[in-house]
Structures are given as structure tokens and as C-alpha cells.
Amino acid sequence: MSQESTSKHESDATSAAKPRHSKFYFDNTLVVLEVEGMLFNVHKYQLMKSETFSDMFKAAKQDPEEGASPDKPIVLEGVKASDFECLLTVLYATRFSNYQPAPEAALIIPAFRLANKWNFEDLRSFLLPLAEKELSDIDKIIFAREFGIKDWLAPAHVRLCQREEPLSSEEANKLGAQSLLLILRIRDEFHHQPGASNTGASARYCIICIGGARYTSFNAGSYSCNKCGAVRNTMNGPYPLVTTTPIQTQTSSIELKVKKWVQDGCVF
């Protein structure tokens, strides 16, 4: 054996004897995967974070060439290439920078979908609170339906019932008929709930101030309104005071109705 070969052998033996850092000694092995006819070439260590892929690679030792080249990729069936791209984007995103923008809804949902499908336990735990924080109420409902997170359904529906802005066509299409029907019924019931009439002090009030209430007598002359001071036609009687249902009571009533609807399977 030549001196050069001996030195190389000793160097390899020395390197093999040194301990590898458990967290920051990366395996640079690349794996070729095919999704919807698209090839991806990714680090094996990223995929090993998945229980499903870890088991798959252990079973694939009998065919070490699978995934080793573009000619023999590992084919992933039943997966969208766009979803897989989102998963890899999140997997490769650094978590150690001082500024780490939260993934957008368009990234969170498909990434979580595959993290859940392939048992990326750490990634799933990382994405779930992000989804709860970043997703809109519409997207939370869609997310909760797909992944069976029942606890998210009632709060998101309650907030939509109480929202001032009407639902857009896109939001209505996303929600579907049953959720849309619930929200419209409750919004109609509580947003247009008639207030209980009460009355104030009796005096002369103009038609503008009283809003057309029924008064004991109508004075067609020019009298000064005791409310606004304007001189115009007035009515003689108590000033109407309108009280509405307290917000807290409304919220409790809405929550009860929505929770009952969720318990009944989100159908009428």
C-alpha cells in the first residue's frame, strides 16, 4: 500500500472516530422525488423529520437506487406539486433569524396538510398556533373542517355573525351553504332586533327629533322644539328613548345558538 493511500486511510479512520453533532451535522444526501410529473431534489435529512418518510427510507434499503437520480425518482401519489412546494418552503425556512415573517395563509394550509399527512410532528406543532393566529375567520373554518379541529368552529362563526361588513361573494362560496345560512339568520335576527321603547320627559318635540313617534297631539304652528331648539311643526308628548339589547347579552345569545349548531353537526 502506498504512503498516500495509508495516509488517506488513517485520515478517514480518524474522521469516522470523531463524534457527530446531534443537531448540526447535516446529511447532505439528496433525494429525487416526483410529484405530478415535477421533479424535486431535496435533502434527505429534511424528509427524515417525517415519521412516514423515515419508515419509507428504512424499507427502501433493499432498493438504494430509488430516489438517487432523476431517472429513478420516488413518486409521491395523491399529492399536489404546489402543496409539496409549500411544505418545502416552510421546512427550509430558517427559524433562527431575528426577523422571521409568519407564513401567509396560502402557505400555512397546504404545508400543514402535508405535515399532517406524513407525520411531520414538529412542523405540525409549529404551524398549528400560526394558523390560529394568522388565518382569517373564513380560513379558520375551512382549516378546522379539513383537519377536524372542532374547537375553532364556534368562535370563528360567532365573530362572522357579529362582523359589521357583509360577507363577500368569495367568502360565501368558501363557507358553503350551511355556514352561510347560519350567519345570515343570526345577523338578520340580531342586527335588526327591535329595541324596547321607553319614554322621556313630556314637552314639544319636532318631527325630526322624535322620528315619527305617535304623540297625543300635533301642533301645526311654529313652536320651538325642546330638544333641538328649531322652530317648526311640533308634537306634544314624551320624548322617545330607545334602548337596545346589551352587547354582552347579544354575544351570549349568539354563542349559544352557534355552539348548538356545531354540536348538531353544523347542519339545520
Description:
The chain has helices at residues 3-17, 44-47, 51-59, 81-92, 105-117, 121-134, 137-147, 153-162, 169-175, 177-191, 207-210, 247-263; strands at 30-35, 38-43, 74-75, 196-206, 217-224, 231-243. Strands 2-1-3 form a 3-stranded mixed β-sheet. A 3-stranded antiparallel β-sheet has the order 4-6-5. It is 49% helix and 17% strand. The radius of gyration is 33 Å and the shape is elongated. The chain folds into 3 domains: 27-135, Potassium Channel Kv1.1, Chain A, CATH 3.30.710.10; 143-193 and 245-268, no CATH class; 196-243, no CATH class. It has 268 residues and is α+β, with helices and mostly antiparallel strands.
Number of beta strands: 6
- Give the % helix: 40-55%
> Spatial order of the strands in the main sheet?
2-1-3
Might you state the CATH topology name of the largest domain? Potassium Channel Kv1.1, Chain A
Main beta-sheet strand count, sense and barrel state? 3 strands, mixed
Number of helices: 12
Q: How much is the radius of gyration in Å? A: 33 Å
CATH architecture title of the largest domain = 2-Layer Sandwich
The structural class is alpha+beta
Strand content: 15-25%
What is the residue-mean pLDDT, rounded to a whole number?
81
Give helix and strand order, one letter per element, not per position: HEEHHEHHHHHHHEHEEH
Low-confidence stretches: 194-198, 212-218
Q: Ends: how far apart?
A: 84 Å
